[in-house]
Prior knowledge:
Helix content is about 80%, strand content about 0%. With about 220 residues, the chain is mainly α.
Amino acid sequence: MNLDFGAIASQIPFLLRGTYVTMEFTLLAALFGFIWGTVLSVLKISKIAPIRWFGIAYTSVFRGTPLLVQLSIVYFATPQLTGYDIPALQAGVITFALNSAAYISETIRGGILAVDKGQREAALSLGVPYRQMMLDIILPQAVKNILPALVNESIALLKDSVLVSTIGAADLLRRADIVSGNTFRYFEPLIIIAGIYYVLVMILTWFGRGLEGRLRRSD
């Protein structure tokens, strides 16, 4: 086999710096996606029809169109429509947060509906306001029940982050392409970033299992 990792040894620090970009993108997209997804899940169980329809229509659009198309629209259409030259990383965070929220909202909605209705009825009978009931009683239990699904969504988000390389963000895959172009070595940099992604996924998996175990012990 014609493998020579020594040929790209000087480029490894350059590759590793892509880990920061990838993690920054993933964490920001996951955070904003979770917040917006939580809001959407509440909208979709609202008794006010127009609000409920908006949540359902939003989810339908973002789940029914390719993520790469959404990313291209945000990155290329924003300067055309607003005159703002949006950075690649910012476009990626916005797109992935909006897309992830559509999937997360369905997961959270299922978690909310799975909470025993008796708790909701008891809270309402005690005069607890709806907003406080959702924040203090329903949502914490829903999140606890759907934590594995949320961790899986975060892992999928991390792996799908390679798409931001298509718009020039200096993530791991983009840096691997640059190293390949400079050294004419293609297999070695790709193997290195594949290993980095695997380590990051294992860290997320370990963190999710640890958090799940801690929540179970707190019951």
